[in-house]
Amino acid sequence: MRYAETTAVDGLSLTVERGTVTAVLGPNGAGKTTTLETCEGYRRPQQGSVRVLGLDPRAQARELLPRIGVMLQEGGAWSGARAPEMLRHIASLHAHPIDPAVLEERLGLAECGRTAYRRLSGGQKQRLSLAMALIGRPEVVFVDEPTAGLDPAARRTVWELFEELRRDGVTVVLTTHYMDEAEKLADRIHIIDHGRLIASGSPLELTRGGTVSTIRLVVTKPFPPEAPASLAAALGDRIEVVLLDELSLLVTGPADASTLARVSDWCERSGVLPESLTLGTRNLEDVFLELTGRGLKESA
Ligand SMILES: Nc1ncnc2c1ncn2[C@@H]1O[C@H](COP(=O)(O)OP(=O)(O)OP(=O)(O)O)[C@@H](O)[C@H]1O
């Protein structure tokens, strides 16, 4: 998929199994939304093909649309409509919708009953959008950053909803910038960057089950450019040093007391003042940063 000079999706090939939750991760501009929009039938692939439930999302849209639910990154409701009106309208377009009152209750939409869509808070819009995607009892739901901007309680509710959908055999494809969300919800994660697939696996496979020990060094002033190479040289062959962002480094390998002492020595010799030096295991965020080479702060 190209937009003028930009190649947004570039030979991406992936399959999602029915009844699973799949998370598509990637830095800003990686091509996640374009990929989802192609699956939803909003965009026609310029090359390659896409099938959803065995159907072509554009040529067979009439058959496919009643069977999928879509939550866009933004928009999707009339600006003057109130949440209950919007939800009832979408329900009326489906053959066997969920009772709108049930979703209103679950997603806390009753509180915005009298407010026009354009005046809803960001989190209320998100919750309405999700309710609209689910109301038709879809077999597959595509949700683009479903919990962006939600408060912690609303986020938890959305997670519970996705877990219920999976139990009911619904296929969920979501994008997110929250690594804990992907780790908790997804059966399978696909990491994409520059429109290409760079890693796939279950959260356990990608993090190797949390068995890779690490030392995380966080500083208050940006590292000098030579810091990763200099620290790697000080620690020897079996240890890998990755710059996660300008203020944090991840040391992977036998992260024991001796390595910790050598990192600390290196800090002293290099005039680096650690804000924290923590032993742990490699999590999904570390894997993401290592693979994409871009800090989450930049990406989120
Ligand atoms: N309608 C458009 N016209 C021109 N360029 C576009 C358009 N939509 C997306 N792009 C470009 O295509 C690339 C992929 O964008 P896309 O929205 O698919 O990324 P994303 O991974 O969803 O990003 P984000 O995490 O920021 O939502 C980006 O470089 C973006 O600027």
From TrEMBL:
<dbReference type="Pfam" id="PF00005">
    <property type="entry name" value="ABC_tran"/>
</dbReference>
<dbReference type="GO" id="GO:0005524">
    <property type="term" value="F:ATP binding"/>
</dbReference>
<keyword id="KW-0813">Transport</keyword>
<dbReference type="InterPro" id="IPR003593">
    <property type="entry name" value="AAA+_ATPase"/>
</dbReference>
<dbReference type="InterPro" id="IPR017871">
    <property type="entry name" value="ABC_transporter-like_CS"/>
</dbReference>
<keyword id="KW-0046">Antibiotic resistance</keyword>
<dbReference type="GO" id="GO:0046677">
    <property type="term" value="P:response to antibiotic"/>
</dbReference>
<dbReference type="InterPro" id="IPR050763">
    <property type="entry name" value="ABC_transporter_ATP-binding"/>
</dbReference>
<keyword id="KW-0547">Nucleotide-binding</keyword>
<keyword id="KW-1003">Cell membrane</keyword>
<dbReference type="GO" id="GO:0016887">
    <property type="term" value="F:ATP hydrolysis activity"/>
</dbReference>
<keyword id="KW-0067">ATP-binding</keyword>
<keyword id="KW-0472">Membrane</keyword>
<dbReference type="GO" id="GO:0005886">
    <property type="term" value="C:plasma membrane"/>
</dbReference>
<feature type="domain" description="ABC transporter">
    <location>
        <begin position="1"/>
        <end position="219"/>
    </location>
</feature>
<dbReference type="InterPro" id="IPR027417">
    <property type="entry name" value="P-loop_NTPase"/>
</dbReference>
<keyword id="KW-1278">Translocase</keyword>
<dbReference type="InterPro" id="IPR003439">
    <property type="entry name" value="ABC_transporter-like_ATP-bd"/>
</dbReference>
<protein>
    <submittedName>
        <fullName>ATP-binding cassette domain-containing protein</fullName>
    </submittedName>
</protein>
